[in-house]
Specification:
Number of helices of chain A: 13
Number of strands of chain B: 2
Distance between the termini of chain B: 39 Å
CATH topology of the largest domain in chain A: Rossmann fold
Distance between the termini of chain A: 76 Å
Strand order of the largest sheet of chain B: 1-2
Largest sheet of chain A: 7 strands, mixed
CATH architecture of the largest domain in chain A: 3-Layer(aba) Sandwich
Helix content of chain A: 40-55%
Largest interface: A-B, 36 and 34 residues
CATH superfamily of the largest domain in chain A: Response regulator
Oligomer: heterodimer
Strand content of chain B: under 5%
Shape of chain A: globular
Structural class of chain A: alpha/beta
Radius of gyration of chain A: 23 Å
Number of helices of chain B: 12
Radius of gyration of chain B: 19 Å
């Protein structure tokens, strides 16, 4: 009985297949894999990426191209083991020609080993550790690294007249690069790093560290944290009445930082690639689509980063079409030049690193605004 | 000098947060002789219940605390019903004395805690919830060279009230008497006619109510309410309980304070990355050198 049903199903699939073949020949569907955390402690980032990707895909479908694209989302929980398992799954699926993700540098690098072996192009929207693109010629990223951001911030702080700076960052691969890239340049300029310490992500109480920093009386504090740790840090600074100016990286750029810390976030300065109040049309279109889809306030930098990553992938697919293979897609990704995204124009250099323009921003009256100094 | 004083004060307030969680945790252990892994989630549920209340009705803090106490108590009774009671369905002596039956509840409470945490995450997302900032308990108060916040006073007051209230209930009420009887010898208590199931349910109600209140207080203190918030305080409370000799509530409170102060003081000498190590170091030292806990008293080895 069961066998017969299976045969029947097989037969109808075959019949449909032959019938549908001519139609599909004109409208091929390409599959892209997207590995990202949809549950677990970093789920909020992954869910933002998924929303951004769906906006990009939706806009693409409406544009009436000669081919279709499907994205397969897989939940990695920001867990290295899960990430590697997903990578194997994507590699085994012959219909998947390219992969987006993962969120953290650690998981992206671990998965990259699988993609390197199999020859699968991988584009991460956020993996900013220097080692990621060094894995192989198949790895791309759409985020500026601390190698670019650190020296820029060092120059900014030095130009503001700060000579003694305290540096703190989360204890991750990424946090290490925040400190080293900034400190190297700042010392080269003639400044002094008087205090440097790492903390575990999700630390509840920053007060012991803040008290320690205050004892060293630095001119400014340079911080490598994401928005949740940032909000805790800023609130507890205020609580202890420590009024040293705080600088940070684009990672803390998120409207939620201001929602969580309120007035205590006022005055924090940071570098960013994406500002939702940028008047250019593509940014405003994205912001409007984001608000309509998620019902949230303006998107932060990370969803914008994901939105651009998906669009860069789609543009590369379009250039490779109709001869889309993993290899041809990789070559087209590598050929990305002046791609006009919402996070600025993106060009991949020979090391598959993006060059982007960073803007200086500050929290003023509950919003991130661009500033000159 | 001011610097060391400030670190000491921060340590005290950290310790009080841990103590607040440890009280309910230790009470439940004392009666069942088994760790309730879902205590951290009760704490989280308390925080979310309080947050919802603040967002929808904006009542005064005292009302919130009372409602959260009730929510925690009910959740605790539910937890006991689903994760603990099914393992006591046989009343013969062999089952009651069986460690395996008792310790199976480690797993069932762990399972329920995972379901609860992931459930909250599904509904609210894993990020920090935004809470009305005016309700936060972090207005600074300067005392001489050191700074504390109003939340420190409220948490201290609540811990004190809980501890005193609990001592009163345990020593001067019939429920307290039966809790102590079951804690002392569950089988014996049953033989002399104490309704052990009801007593255990009461213990869960009281212990979980306290856990839930701790959750909302600490949530407001740090302004950080999120699904995984119960994990770290749960670990610290566990260590405090083991150090304090498993079933001694005042012992657990004192050890929670010791852990908090040591953590803050340790950050003077080492990077804060190592801060969590302090609690674990205490745990190992206790297990090796004080197998009955620092405050003795325990019936069996940790």
């Amino acid at each position: 009985m069961k066998n017969r049903r299976q045969l029947l199903a097989l037969g109808s699939v075959l019949a449909l297949g032959t019938l549908g073949l001519p139609a599909y020949a004109q409208q091929p569907t390409y599959k892209i894999g997207y590995q990202l955390p949809l549950t677990g402690n970093t789920a909020q980032y992954g869910i933002d990426f998924k929303n951004a990707a769906e906006i990009a895909l939706d806009q693409f479908a409406k544009a009436g191209k000669s081919f279709k694209v499907e994205i397969v989302f897989e939940d990695s929980r920001s867990d290295t083991k899960e990430g590697v398992a997903i990578a194997r799954k994507f590699v085994d699926d012959k219909s998947i020609v390219g992969v987006l993700g993962d969120f953290t540098s650690g998981v992206s690098i671990a998965s990259a080993q699988i993609y390197k072996e199999a020859g699968m192009p991988q584009l991460s929207q956020t993996a900013s550790h220097p080692d990621y693109t060094k894995v192989s010629e198949w790895q791309f990223r759409n985020i500026t690294t601390q190698a670019q951001e650190g020296p820029l911030n060092a120059e900014w702080l030095y130009a503001s007249g700060y000579r003694k700076v305290a540096v703190i960052a989360e204890q991750t691969d990424w946090g290490q690069t925040v400190v080293s890239n900034f400190a190297d340049k700042f010392k080269a300029l003639g400044g002094q790093v008087v205090f440097s310490e790492f903390f575990n992500r999700g630390l509840a109480d920053f007060r012991p560290i803040i008290t320690k920093i205050a004892r060293d009386k630095p001119d400014a504090i340079y911080t490598g944290y994401f928005y949740e740790d940032g909000a805790q840090f800023l609130k507890q600074m205020k609580q202890l009445s420590v009024t040293i100016p705080v600088h940070s990286t684009s990672a803390s750029y998120n409207q939620q930082l201001i929602t969580l810390a309120g007035a205590d976030a006022e005055g924090m300065k940071l570098t960013a690639t994406f500002l939702p109040n940028n008047p250019s049309k593509n940014v405003q279109d994205f912001v409007a689509a984001w608000k309509a889809k998620t019902g949230q306030a303006e998107p932060g930098q990370f969803p914008a980063q994901a939105y651009d990553a998906v669009n860069i992938m789609l543009a590369a697919l379009e250039r490779a079409h109709p001869n889309v293979t993993r290899k041809s897609l990789r070559d087209q990704l590598a050929a990305t030049k002046n791609f006009p995204g919402v996070t600025g124009d993106t060009t991949f250099d020979a090391d598959r690193e993006p060059s982007k323009k960073l803007v200086r921003a500050q929290v003023k009256n509950g919003a991130f605004v661009a500033v000159e100094k | 000098m001011d610097y060391y004083l400030q670190q000491l004060v921060i340590g005290l307030s950290l310790g009080m947060v841990y103590a607040l969680v440890a009280i309910g945790f230790t009470l439940i252990f004392g009666v069942l002789n088994v760790v309730n892994f879902a205590h951290g989630e009760i704490y989280t549920i308390g925080a979310f219940a309080g947050l919802l209340l603040f967002v929808s009705f904006a009542p005064p803090l005292v009302v919130v605390l009372l409602v959260v106490l009730a929510v925690g108590a009910l959740t605790g009774v539910g937890l006991e019903r689903f994760a603990f009671k099914p393992f006591r369905r046989f009343n013969d002596e062999a089952t009651l004395k069986s460690r395996a039956m008792r310790e199976a509840t480690l797993m069932s409470s762990l399972a329920l805690s995972i379901v609860a945490r992931e459930g909250i995450e599904l509904v609210f997302g894993s990020q920090f919830q935004s809470l009305p900032l005016q309700h936060m308990l972090n207005s600074p108060i300067k005392i001489g060279p050191v700074t504390i916040v109003d939340g420190d006073l409220i948490i201290f007051g609540t811990s004190f009230l809980m501890l005193a209230g609990l001592q009163f209930v345990l020593k001067h009420t019939s429920v307290g008497l039966s809790i102590r009887a079951v804690s002392n010898n569950a089988l014996g208590a049953r033989y002399v006619g104490i309704d052990t199931d009801r007593t255990i349910a009461w213990t869960f109600a009281v212990g979980s109510g306290m856990g839930a209140v701790a959750g909302i207080l600490v949530g407001l203190y740090y302004g950080a309410i999120f699904p995984a918030m119960g994990f770290t305080p749960g670990i610290k409370a566990f260590v405090a309980m083991v150090m304090g000799g498993l079933s001694s509530i005042p012992g657990a409170v004192i050890c929670a304070l010791i852990i908090g102060i040591s953590e803050a003081l340790s950050s003077i000498f080492v990077s804060s990355v190592w801060q969590d190590l302090v609690a674990y170091a205490f745990l190992i030292i206790t297990l090796i050198f004080f197998p009955r806990g620092i405050f003795g008293g325990a019936r069996e080895r940790v």
